[in-house]
Design brief:
The complex is a heterodimer of chains A (395) and B (249). Chain A has seven helices and 19 strands. With 395 residues, chain A is of the alpha/beta class. In chain A, the strands form two sheets. Chain A has a ten-stranded mixed beta sheet with strand order 2-1-5-7-9-11-13-15-17-19, with helices on one face. In chain A, strands 3-4-6-8-10-12-14-16-18 form a nine-stranded mixed beta sheet, covered by helices on one side. In chain A, a hairpin with a 2-residue loop joins β1 and β2. In chain A, α2 packs across α4 and α6 runs antiparallel to α7. The two termini of chain B are 30 Å apart. In chain B, the strands form three sheets. In chain B, strands 6-9-10-3-11-12 form a six-stranded mixed beta sheet, sandwiched between helices. Chain B is built from eight helices and twelve strands. Chain B is globular. Helix content of chain B is 37%, strand content 29%. The chains are: A alpha/beta (395), B alpha/beta (249). Chains A and B meet through α5 and α6 of A and α2, β6, β7 and α3 of B.
């Protein structure tokens, strides 16, 4: 393999990274981009070509309001490599900070996040808690912010975690690792909303033990480049995961939803439904992969991605993939791209509704299939508000 | 009330309406009959303002106001209601919400206040009974999973709630059984009044047993080729449209 010609951004990252395996690996492969199969439509290497600085570590004076206001939540804020959390936590919940440590395997961006994170954090949830936990990744200054978070959810514990990615400036690179013990149940809500000029990378991994349940819903508005990546490993019998998502993209924003679900043990279930409404010159990317290992008999896995292009210049790229080595499984995928139905718009206008309102109602109707699946009423309402506000801004 | 003068309409480059003139005075119900492809639905869509129906010549006005300059929703607010020949299904849009949003949009455009949720509920319950729909249907997404007959009932439900100044029924009778035909008759007859007009487009005389038209017009090859009283519909039922085809050509 010929030596890689590093871009100025790669040079600067190499200068920041501590010596070790991660740095060595990065020196050989560089930032992911269009030459890498998993990043062909999300060319991070091109977008991040200018030199990067480590972000100023002093916490910002004012943290902007969260895109989903949840005053009742236990709030953990990561901003510019510092972590702020309540001084008293309910019984059974603990937050600890560790010395930086490297990880092996995983994706390039996950390794970089771990290598550069100044204060890796571990959140342990050992008792079910009705109060949701809100984890905010906030970047308000130029430069690179790296976060590394591990979340352990004990057996039979149920919890709701809302993660926000609020990149107002610079580049955010987050790694979030979830470990769900037997029969743990996690409702994970992800809101990606920040400045359209920012770059946001979130790499997450969820390891599900027997009977564990992950119910994840993402809403993303894109950025100069945004990539929300979720890997799930069904390592216990009868684990199940729901991964749903909404992309609302306008202007020149870019949002990549990538997911890889690894079915290792028998009797696991996965359901994925992503919907994208894209206008302007924005670009949506969906990559979904189901891996079903030989021993993962009786796997049930369904993947669907549907995109609505609202302008001539909107763009969507989708790659659903099934890789199945077991013979007694039910797996399916579906992918559609379409435009709003002119006949429906005329019908609605004939009834008195303006064209803009008709379009908004149809987009909301298109997205409703995802929103209706959100079990928590407050979160469902907040998603409706986010969608409504986005549609309102288009009119 | 509704005045159409020398209307020429092209669809996909083909001339469909070719100098159609028609006047429906306030308080009257006129029927339009004609063979397939004569331009009946094109007339309905042109009055409602559907995109792709290019008016190349002529005028359409309601109470002296030029409709052709208005958007479809503005025409709806002026009181034009079209009962679609093939009503749409709109998945994901709740029926009650859609009807209320539409009605309020019209009312606001006319400078009337929005209808309250409580009043709306009362009215829609009453009208749902009138058109013979089950209340369960209102809980579904708009028209989704409805039979053809139920979709027509949903059109009549909206018309009876909106009480439009001018209703156009585009083959509302097609695919309906006798009970449903009677229901259409009841809805139109209830609304009939000195300041309303209707245009009833149909292939068959039988709907006119329930809605007695003041005038009957024969549309062939994009023009009105004959007009007369209700007896003209009976004549057409017996003798067909062939008698007019040579005139139109």
């Amino acid at each position: 393999m010929s030596a890689l010609n590093h871009t100025p951004a790669e040079e600067s990252l190499l200068a920041m990274m501590p010596a070790g395996e991660a740095r060595k690996h990065f020196a050989a492969t560089g930032l992911p981009g269009r030459k890498d199969e998993g990043w062909r439509w999300t060319d991070l290497r091109r977008v991040l070509s200018a030199p990067l600085e480590a972000s100023d570590p002093t916490p910002p004076k004012n943290i902007p309001l969260a895109p989903v206001p949840m005053p009742e939540a236990i709030e953990v804020v990561f901003s510019q490599d510092t972590v702020a959390s309540p001084t008293t936590l309910p019984a059974g919940i603990s937050i600890t900070q560790d010395e930086p440590y490297a990880i092996k395997g995983r994706s390039e961006m996950a390794r970089i996040a771990a290598a550069l994170s100044k204060s890796p954090t571990t959140l342990c949830i050992e008792k079910s808690c009705e109060t949701p936990i809100m984890i905010r990744h906030v970047a308000t200054k130029a430069g690179l912010s790296a976060t590394h978070l591990q979340i352990h959810i004990a057996a039979n514990v149920e919890t709701v975690i809302v993660e926000t990615y609020e990149t107002h400036e610079g580049v955010s690179n987050a790694l979030v690792e979830y470990f769900l013990a037997e029969n743990a149940k996690l409702t994970r809500v992800i809101v990606q909303k920040g400045n359209q000029a920012a770059v946001v990378i979130s790499s997450s991994l969820a390891i599900l033990m027997a009977g564990a349940k992950l119910d994840q819903t993402t809403i993303g508005f894109g950025a100069k480049l945004a990539r929300m990546e979720t890997k799930v490993q069904h390592v216990g019998v009868g684990a199940s995961a729901i991964l749903n998502g909404i992309s609302l993209l306008k202007g020149k924003s870019h949002l990549d939803h990538t997911s890889v679900i690894d079915h290792i043990m028998p009797g696991c279930e996965t359901r994925e439904l992503y919907k994208a409404a894209i206008t302007g010159r924005a670009r949506g990317v969906f990559q979904g992969k189901f891996l079903v290992k030989q021993g993962a008999q009786k796997t049930q896995a369904q993947m669907a991605h549907h995109a609505l292009l609202l302008s001539q210049t909107a763009e969507v790229r989708a790659k659903p993939e099934l890789e199945i080595y077991a013979d007694d499984v039910e797996c399916a995928h579906g992918n559609t791209v379409g435009a709003l139905d002119d006949d429906a718009i005329f019908y609605m206008r004939q009834r008195g509704v303006s064209e803009a309102q008709a379009r908004a109602m149809l987009v909301q109707a298109f997205l409703s299939e995802v929103i209706e699946q959100i079990q928590d009423e407050k979160i469902r309402q907040q998603f409706e508000t986010l969608v409504g506000d986005w549609m309102g801004a288009q009119i | 009330m509704l005045k159409i003068n020398n209307l020429h309409v092209k669809v996909d480059g083909s001339v469909i309406l070719n100098g159609l003139s028609l006047e429906v005075p306030a308080g009257e119900v006129h029927a339009i009959m004609g063979p397939n492809g004569s331009g009946k639905s094109t007339l309905a869509y042109s009055i409602a303002g559907r995109q792709g129906y290019d008016v190349t010549k002529g005028d359409v006005s309601l109470d002296g106001e030029n409709l052709l300059e208005l958007d479809p929703n503005e025409r709806a607010a002026k009181g034009i209601f079209l009962s679609f020949q093939q009503p749409l299904e709109i998945p994901g849009v709740a029926t009650m919400n859609f009807i209320r949003t539409s009605w309020n949009a019209q009312r606001v455009a006319r400078g009337e206040g929005q209808v309250s949720a409580a009043d709306f509920l009362k009215i829609i319950r009453e009208k749902t009974k009138l058109v013979g729909l089950s209340g369960e249907k209102l809980k579904r997404p708009f028209n989704v999973g409805f039979s053809g007959g139920e979709k027509k009932r949903m059109e009549m439900l909206q018309m009876s709630i909106f009480e439009p100044r001018f209703g156009i029924l585009d083959e509302t009778d097609s695919g309906l059984d006798i009970d449903a035909l009677k229901m259409v008759g009841t809805v139109v007859n209830d609304l009939r009044g000195a300041d309303r007009g209707f245009l009833v487009i149909t292939h068959y005389q039988r709907l006119l047993d329930y809605i007695k038209p003041d005038r009957v017009h024969v549309l062939a090859a994009g023009r009105i080729v004959k007009s007369g009283g209700p007896e003209l519909a009976l004549d057409l039922e017996q003798n067909g449209y062939d008698q007019f085809m040579t005139d139109a050509a």
